[in-house]
Amino acid sequence: MSRLLQHALTAQADRRPEAVALVMDGARMTYAHLEAASNRLARMLRASGVQRGDRVALLLPKSPRAIVAIVAVLKADAIYVPLDTTSPLPRLARMLQSTAPRCLLAEAGVAAVAADLLAATPERAPLALGWIDGPPPPGPWASRSAGFSATDVEALADTVLDTGVVISHANVQHFVDWATTYFALGPDDRTSGHSPLHFDLSTFDIFGTLGAGGQLHLVPPGLAVAPDAVPRFIRDAALTQWFSVPSLLTYVVKFDAVRPNDFPSLRRLLWCGEVLPTPVLRTLMARLPHVSFTNLYGPTEATVASSYHTVPACPATDDTPIPIGAPCAGEQLRVLDAERRPVPAGEIGELYIAGVGLSAGYWREPEKTAAVFVTDAAGVRLYRTGDLGRRGTDGLFYFVGRVDSQVKSRGYRIELGEIEAALHHIPEVREAAVVAVDTGGFEGAAICCAYAPAPGAPLTPVTLRQALAAVLPAYMLPARWRRLDTLPKNANGKIDRPALRAAFAATA
After folding, report:
1. Which of 437, 435, 442 is nearest to 402 (CA)?
2. Residues 61 and 204 in one domain
3. Fewer CB within 10 Å: N-end or C-end of the chain?
C-alpha cells in the first residue's frame, strides 16, 4: 500500500505520545491528542457521508484545530480544500462551486461567513456542515449541521489509498522525504508554521515537521503587522527553523529588527516563492553567522519546491545573483527555447520542470492543464513555469524573471525584474514592485513603480527616479509612481502585482 502523509504522524504518536506536536498562542497539543482528535473527526466525516475521493472544504482560521481537520480529512480517505476565511465571498463561492465538496468544516468564529457562503451557493450546498469546536451555533443551517465531538478514539482501519488528485500524497511525500534528509529534521526541531494553510508551502511546514516528530509553532496570521513581532516570535519560541516568503524577511530587515547574533537557537532560514533581494540576504547573513540560508524554488504545480541552494558564504556585493540552485532529488530543471530545445549554458530561456513533484494538473480544467503540462520528444512530462532562467557555468540554475515581465516600452525590450533589483539596492526603499500597464498606443507598455519608503526616509518619486537614473538607462526608468505605506499582499504574503496593475490602470 502507498505510504501516506498521515502514517508518519500516527507513527510519532505511537512512539512519543506525550511529545508536543503543535503550539499556538501558548496552547500546546501533544501527538497523542492530535492522533485521537483526528481519528474522532475522521470517523464523523465518514458517518456524515464522506467517501473516498470526496472533497472536504475547510473554512478554518489557522489553529491546532485546523491541523486536526487536515489530518482527519486525509484519514477519511478524502481531499482537503483549504479556504481563506478572509477572501471575498464571491471568490469563496466560486471555489465551492468548482470543488463541489461533500462537507464544509467550519468553527463558530466564522459562522457568519459560513452562512453567507452557503446562501451564495445553494445549488452546491455541502451534504453536511460540521462545527469542529462544539455543537452547531444557532442559525438556519442547524438542521443539517453537526458538532463533531465524539469520544471514540479507536484507530482507523488502514485502508486509506493515495488519492492522486491535484497535489497528491506522493507529490508531498517525495518533497518531505528529501527535505527531512537534507535539512536533518528531527524531534528536537521547533519550526515555523508561517504560510497560510491554503498555500502549498504549508504542506512542508505540517508534514515535514510532524513527520519528523518536531514541534510546529503556528504563526498567527496578523503577526507581520509590527516589524519586531516576527523576530520576537522566533526568540520566544526558540525556533530552529524559519520558512516564509521573502517579502516578510525584507520587511523585517528594512526596519532593522534583527540584532547581531540574534536567534541563538535558529539553525536554518528558508525562503521560497519570490526573489529575496541580495542586500537583504547580506544583512541577515552578516547578523546571523550561525544560521544556514537556503533558497527554495518551485511553483505550486510542482509541489513546494523543485530546486534548492544553500548559500555557502555571504555574497560579496549587493549585485551578486543568488542561484535557485540544483534540482531536488527526483526533480529536473530544463532551460528551453520557444521550440522547447535546450539552450546553451549562460543563455536565457524558459524554465521547465519534470519529475516526482509534478501535480496531476488543474482541478476540472483540462484545457488549462494541457496548456502548461506538456511532453517532450521522449514522452517525459514537463511543466512550463512561465519563468525565465539560465544555467550558469557553475552548473547551477538562476532565475531571471517572468516571461510576462519582459515588456516592450518605447521600442525597447525591458526586464522589469532588473528595475526591481536596482530599487532594492537603494537603502531608503523598504519595498518596491514594478509592473507594466498597456497604454494602447505606439509607445507600448507604461512602466509603473509602487514603493514604500524606509522608516523616516524622505523619499519622493523625484528623488527615487534620480537614484535609479544613476544605475539604469533612461528608457528603463518608470513613468508612473505611487508611494504607499506598505505594498498590497495577496493571501500567500507575496506582493499583489495584479492589484498594483489594476490601480495604475484605473488612474491612467
Report:
1. 435
2. no
3. N
Percent of the chain with pLDDT over 90: 63
DSSP letters spanning 363-380: TT-HHHHHHHEEE-TT--
Instruction: Note whether 255 and 194 are same-domain residues.
Output: yes
Among candidates 189, 191, 238, 244, which has minimal Cα distance to 216?
Answer: 191
Calculate what percentage of the chain has a pLDDT beyond 70. Answer: 89
User: CA 257 → CA 248, 267, 424, distances in Å?
Assistant: 12, 19, 18
Looking at residue 157, the DSSP 8-state letter turns out to be: P
Q: What's the pLDDT at 226?
A: 76
Of 347, 382, 400, the residue at which a domain comes to its end is: 400
pLDDT at residue 145 is higher than 60: no
> Residue 162: inside a domain, yes or no?
no
CATH code: domain of residue 250: 3.40.50.12780
Q: What is the DSSP letter of 138?
A: S
Cβ atoms of 214 and 268 within 8 Å: the answer is no
Q: Average pLDDT of 153-163?
A: 39
Asked if 366 and 231 sit in the same domain, the reply is yes
Write down the residue that cell numbers 521550440 correspond to. 339
pTM summary value? 0.83
Strands 268-271 and 241-244: parallel
Amino acid, single-letter form, for residue 90: P
Q: What is the mean pLDDT of residues 31-58?
A: 92
Burial class (CB in 10 A: 0-12, 13-18, 19+), 162: middle
Residues 467 and 354 in one domain: no
pLDDT band per the 50, 70, 90 thresholds, residue 415: confident
Cell numbers placing 149: 465531538
Do both 95 and 183 map to the same domain? no
- Give Cα separations from 181 to 47, 177, 178, 206, 214 (angstroms): 38, 6, 5, 16, 14
